[in-house]
Amino acid sequence: MNSTPTMSSSSRLDEAWLREECAALELPWQVRVVDEIASTSDALRTAAQQGEEHGIVLFAESQTAGRGRRDNRWVTPPGLDLMFSLLLRPTEPISFWPRLTTLAALSICLAIEEELPLKPQIKWPNDIYLNSRKVSGLLAEVVATPKGMALILGIGLNVNSREFPPELADTATSLIQALPSGVTIRALDRQQIALRVLKDLAQQIQHLESGFTDAIAAVRQRSWLIGKQIRATVDGQEIYGRAVDINQEGHLILSLADGSLRTLNSADGVRQVVSA
Hints:
The protein has helices at 15-24, 40-49, 99-115, 175-178, 190-205, 212-221; strands spanning 30-37, 56-63, 82-88, 121-123, 127-130, 133-145, 148-157, 229-234, 237-246, 252-256, 261-264, 270-275.
């Protein structure tokens, strides 16, 4: 972890610099930066269907129709945060692909920890929290293409935003807002943070098939949900339980009042965090 936060203005991301750094680090990414787009994930879905190869990373300075899970909007002020998507064509069997969300969440946590004096946590399976507020979200979507199946991984990371819409004011944060008191800084370096995230993503994705057990151990250490009481819907039945573990496939384990254990394979079942 750096002892001092990286500083920079909120200028446009430098596509050429990111490409050069990725090449120097032998990262598998082909970076593209656009000023404004409806959705980076929608654009890469189209690119995948048109035959584009693995490794395209599309950053947008502003999105007009960015979205998260359940089609929730992701607010994107121009030039302040990181909004991007990756086109992936993993060579591993598709049964391993659900692990990508877990690995991506861990990658974002590691990147934050390496760049800043912060302790991010994973709200299973695809949100990153700082001080119990959301700083990042992930959305993975599998798409059929003429060249076979592909996966589009969308990532939003609040970096320099200081204000949020009223409906998000109590639940959202940014990296700069979460810095420890006493740290005065005008803007964090989005460029450096973007490169760090891409570096950690490349490293963690290598664990899609082998090494995933170690990744799960690191995810457990950063879990925001473990220990909390959860209300969820499983097979049409509403259940209450305490989150007690994340299993070796990255699924959440609940302990119910009768002592039995239930496994949640998807966040779609989680309706409410009732209490700590």
